[in-house]
Write a structure and sequence with these properties.
Number of strands: 14
Number of domains: 3
Helix content: 25-40%
CATH topology of the largest domain: Rossmann fold
Strand order of the largest sheet: 2-3-1-4-5-6
Bound molecules: iron/sulfur cluster
Number of helices: 14
Shape: globular
Order of helices and strands: EHEEHEHEHEHEHEHEHEHHEHEEHEHH
Length: about 400
């Protein structure tokens, strides 16, 4: 379970002012000294991440962020980073020093949680410093807040119980394939093993879909493109063929209507975001003009799998398909431009390393800037004239 990728973990951000007790709290929750703790304000500079099994809930990722009130020059950069984390997490622990309640700061933060639709627990830290009267007064102001002191294990256990309860309400249940096909159906996965395939292993999108087939009782067969035709002869009534997008054209010819067809990338476009929007986005290709700029965004920083699909193959295919001299910008990893309005189209990879929330923010930001967004697999299907057959399985 320690191998669960961070994108598949429930992500919990710890936010609050500098020295409000965020880092001590994280250390107590995970039972290890992960974050540097001191009484000096601003000890947490960059976010500190800790992946763990939060039993019985499952794999989670805690993100301890820098204080949101740091006004120094360097502090402003840290606050920007922390706010960037805030947009992406699935849940927030909002830590407030119960001895130093700042109502204006509290209201500002609550607005941000609401703006980005982040559920949160208000943690009133350092409660050992409060008198009973002070505690009663604070309780009346924040009836849903929870008092915690790192000096009392029981208060940490109470907080963990509350977290379990709230996390379970929020858990993301989007499926890649388990909701598309019934139990006992048959899937063939096509994994070309050529010079570009990583040596001795499958890539993350393939592993995740294979695992979900096993979880859902979908019978899965993995073949190279060179064995696909004979596999289709051997196995009767195959429900779906899933291919690496780069082999779409060849695989479609081999399948030749014997089964439905899609790609790993398109399955991820559906799970991570909004397939409808992405399908609409791909139609922009036929409307592009000379000089239009396309943003290609890939979540891997050093791509070990499909090395040049985004940088080389897709630009080439688009130029050939449109006959237009379009320009391309490339962004990798967490780098996604704040200003999108100069682009005519955003083309995103399958985003297997992003959590759904993060991908949804990218989609929302594109649409808010009136820039259509689509995905690698859909682009390759469209330029090869097989888009309709590649999305048939989804009944859009
Ligand atoms: S480029 Fe995108 S889809 Fe491919 S492995 Fe990286 S994150 Fe996953």
């Amino acid at each position: 379970m320690n191998k669960t990728p961070n994108s598949n973990r429930f992500q919990i951000g710890i936010f609050g002012k500098t020295n409000s007790g965020k880092s001590s709290l994280l250390n107590k929750i995970v039972g290890q000294d992960i974050s540097i703790v001191s009484n000096v304000s601003g000890t947490t500079t960059d976010s500190v991440k800790k992946a763990m099994e939060f039993l019985p809930f499952g794999p989670v990722l805690f993100i301890d962020t820098a204080g949101l009130d740091d006004k120094s020059e360097l502090g402003k950069i840290r606050v920007k980073k922390a706010l960037n984390e805030l947009k992406k997490v699935d849940f927030a622990l909002f830590v407030m020093d119960s001895k130093n309640i700042d109502m204006a700061f509290y209201r500002d933060q609550i607005i941000k949680f609401k703006q980005y639709n982040i559920p949160y627990i208000l943690v009133l830290s350092k409660s050992e410093l409060l008198s009973n009267d002070e505690k009663n007064t604070i309780e009346k102001i924040f009836p849903t807040g929870i008092f915690v002191t790192v000096e009392d294990e029981k208060s940490i256990l109470n907080l963990k119980d509350r977290m379990l309860l709230e996390f379970s309400k929020e858990k993301e249940e989007s499926k890649l394939i388990g909701d598309l096909l019934p139990y006992n159906s048959k899937v063939i996965m096509v994994v070309p093993v050529d010079s570009e395939a990583p040596k001795g292993r499958l890539i993350l999108p393939q592993v995740q879909i294979l695992r979900e087939c096993l979880d859902s009782g979908i019978k899965s067969y993995v073949v190279r493109d060179t064995e696909l035709s004979s596999a289709l002869d051997d196995i009767t009534n195959v429900d779906l063929v899933i291919t690496d997008s780069q082999a779409f054209k060849e695989v479609e010819k081999i399948v030749d209507g014997r089964a439905k067809l899609t790609s790993f990338s398109i399955l991820f476009a559906r799970q991570k975001g909004d397939l409808d929007t992405m399908v609409k986005g791909v139609k922009t290709l036929s409307k592009l003009n000379h000089g239009d700029k396309i943003l290609i965004a890939e979540t891997c920083t050093h791509n070990t799998s499909h090395e040049d699909i985004g940088r080389v193959k897709i630009p080439k295919l688009i130029k050939k398909y449109t006959g237009k001299e379009v320009e391309f910008d490339f962004k990798f990893g967490n780098d996604f431009p704040e200003d999108l309005k100069n682009y005519a189209l955003v083309i995103h990879c399958g985003a297997c390393m992003l959590n759904k929330k993060n991908m949804q923010i990218r989609i929302d930001e594109s649409l808010e800037s009136n820039v259509p967004i689509t995905n690698y697999g859909l682009v390759i299907a469209e330029v090869n004239g097989i888009l309709n057959s590649a999305i048939k399985i989804f009944n859009l």
